[in-house]
Structure to design on (632 residues):
């Protein structure tokens, strides 16, 4: 299977590539920046959206790619950090400034039993790097599946019908021990059984 | 490109650092020195009489392709200036801020390499290269008879700072706003201090070397200008196909009282701001190494570097390198994440906006490339540049959401103190007035 790893001019993209390579042996991972026209023409089965600077609206051709291809072809998507904020933004929920910005520390995350967290303890540690984010609210399209333990900041979400998953924390960080397990679950339950 | 032959001798010769620096000064050389053996090899490398200049990374690859063999001896010494970054990224990402005093990519193949091991001050290893080019050769006798330059007294007048106190503090506040708005997690902000000195580059180098143990030092004469670096930080090393990066973040002063020294160290190890910054840099360097390495792994976090005046926190990241191309290596890694911020590209853009000047060589990398492909590069911090009586050096720090603008400015003065003392720039109080020079 081919994975398009969309790089939002980020500095963790190749950690994500390494994590995908380890978690999904045999997959072909193509890295392209969000300004690259190739993303409209190359063939891939899964889209992974990297973290990155700025806001979900400042992600090059990503929005256009979603409109033209992703939502029509039912392509599974995993969005990390800015990538999650993009999924939320695309379906009507803007991220704002958080009252507890964290950059480069572990935080405790509590999930609510979504299949993505199969085999993962209800509370687990993961790395956070974000100033912007979102808090739980009513959504027509999205389900929030994990929160920060000591706040109600959203740490994971999925689409109600489409195979779209977002993680606010960073599974690719060396501080996130369960990163590989999460990617394997995403692959098993959202890509293979989409 | 050309094929280089070489001969290696061991000669009995009593040497000290003054001798190595004098050689460097006399023959337009480059001396990579270390007075500490904590992290580095404990060896000093001097290249003298430059006979071939390399001004693009591709030229190094061509030279390596033709001359690569099993010998762990120097092929070329040189540097990449921080301002070279726009040549390695897609066009238009960076502004054209350049500080053009020095060439921005500069490596030399020298006629002689002299290896001086700190554990043996009575002998030298000499490597003489023979290149199929026309150049003025020097004799080994002449090299060994080089007289040590006389030490002279002198002082330096303060000429100003590239950013005033207000501008620096405003820069810190702007970075914090960029962090809040999601542009970056951290950025390094520096300012350049200038002076006019009556000291010679040789004097300054000796004084700086004596003021503090140096891990990755440089004394180099390039087109009659000088680079004097007392860097404690390795950027990366390649040894037998293993790439190692060693980013530093986090510093605390040492104390003469043993009890207080221990408390300081324990406070450093508990400091959440410093640990978060180091974590971020570790992830950033893992990322850059993952572009060209397999099996990238964090080998130590956090580790403590014990220097004479300060403790630093650092980390070791290793990977198996999958390319032999120097061009690919620097495209993947450059500039070093510990002196930009994260995400790197956006951080560099913000640094350009707020520092308003190119950084020149400052925070670039100086090092060596060996015949067998091994290489080792520092991060050019704590580095002074000398051009015909004018000296300049940068000082700065990593700015996070937790930074206080006034304290960060103060910190830039503390961090420069070692250089102030070495160049006898007495009037540090003038910094409070902050004349601004561009």
């Amino acid at each position: 299977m081919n994975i398009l790893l969309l790089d939002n001019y980020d500095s963790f993209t190749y950690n994500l590539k390494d994590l995908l390579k380890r978690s999904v042996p045999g997959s072909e991972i193509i890295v392209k920046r969000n300004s690259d026209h190739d993303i409209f023409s190359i063939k891939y089965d899964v889209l992974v959206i990297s973290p990155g600077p700025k806001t979900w609206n400042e992600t090059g051709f990503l929005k256009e790619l979603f409109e033209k291809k992703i939502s029509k072809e039912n392509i599974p998507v995993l969005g990390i950090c800015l990538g999650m904020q993009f999924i939320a933004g695309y379906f009507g929920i803007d991220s704002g400034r958080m009252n507890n910005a964290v950059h480069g520390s572990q935080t405790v995350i509590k999930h609510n039993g979504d299949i993505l967290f199969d085999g993962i303890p209800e509370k687990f540690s993961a790395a956070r790097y974000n100033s912007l984010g979102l808090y739980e609210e009513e959504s027509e399209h999205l389900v929030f599946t994990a929160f920060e333990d000591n706040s109600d900041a959203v740490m994971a979400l999925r689409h109600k019908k489409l195979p779209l998953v977002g993680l606010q924390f960073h599974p690719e960080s060396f501080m996130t021990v369960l990163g590989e397990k999460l990617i394997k679950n995403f692959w098993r339950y959202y890509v293979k059984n989409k | 490109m050309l094929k280089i032959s070489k001969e290696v001798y061991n000669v009995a010769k009593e040497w000290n650092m003054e001798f190595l620096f004098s050689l460097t000064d006399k023959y337009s050389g480059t001396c990579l020195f270390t007075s500490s053996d904590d992290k580095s090899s404990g060896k000093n490398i001097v290249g003298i009489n430059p006979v071939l200049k390399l001004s693009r990374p591709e030229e190094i690859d061509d030279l390596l392709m033709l001359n690569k063999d099993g010998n762990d001896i120097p092929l070329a010494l040189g540097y990449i200036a921080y301002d070279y970054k726009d040549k390695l990224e897609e066009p238009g990402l960076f502004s054209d801020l350049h500080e053009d005093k020095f060439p921005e990519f500069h490596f030399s193949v020298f006629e002689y390499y002299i290896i001086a091991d700190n554990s043996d001050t009575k002998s030298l290893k000499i490597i003489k290269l023979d290149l199929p080019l026309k150049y003025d050769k020097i004799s080994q006798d002449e090299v060994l008879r080089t007289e040590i330059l006389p030490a002279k007294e002198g002082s330096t007048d303060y000429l100003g700072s590239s950013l005033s106190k207000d501008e620096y503090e405003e820069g810190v506040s702007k970075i914090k706003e960029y962090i809040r708005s999601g542009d970056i997690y951290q950025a390094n902000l520096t300012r350049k201090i200038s002076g006019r000195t009556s000291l010679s580059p040789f004097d300054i180098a000796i004084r700086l070397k004596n003021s503090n143990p140096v891990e990755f030092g440089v004394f180099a004469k390039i087109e009659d200008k000088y680079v004097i670096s007392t860097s404690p930080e390795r950027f990366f090393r390649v040894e037998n196909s293993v790439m190692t990066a060693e980013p530093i973040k986090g510093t605390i002063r040492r104390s003469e009282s043993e009890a207080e020294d221990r408390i300081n160290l324990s406070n450093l190890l508990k400091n959440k701001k410093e640990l978060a910054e180091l974590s971020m840099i570790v992830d950033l360097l893992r990322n850059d190494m993952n572009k060209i390495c397999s099996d990238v792994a964090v080998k130590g976090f956090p580790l403590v570097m014990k220097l004479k005046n300060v403790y630093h926190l650092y980390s070791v990241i290793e990977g198996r390198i999958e390319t032999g191309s120097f061009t690919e290596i620097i495209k993947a890694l450059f500039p070093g994440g510990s002196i930009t911020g994260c995400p790197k590209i956006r951080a560099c853009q913000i640094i350009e906006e707020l520092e308003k000047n190119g950084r020149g060589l400052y925070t670039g990398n100086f090092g060596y490339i060996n015949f067998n492909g091994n290489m080792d590069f520092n991060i050019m911090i704590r580095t002074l540049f000398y051009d015909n009586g004018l000296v300049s050096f940068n000082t700065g720090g990593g700015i996070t959401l937790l930074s206080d603008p006034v304290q960060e400015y103060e910190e830039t003065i503390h961090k420069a103190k070692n250089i102030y003392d070495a160049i006898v720039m007495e009037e540090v109080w003038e910094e409070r007035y902050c004349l601004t020079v561009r």
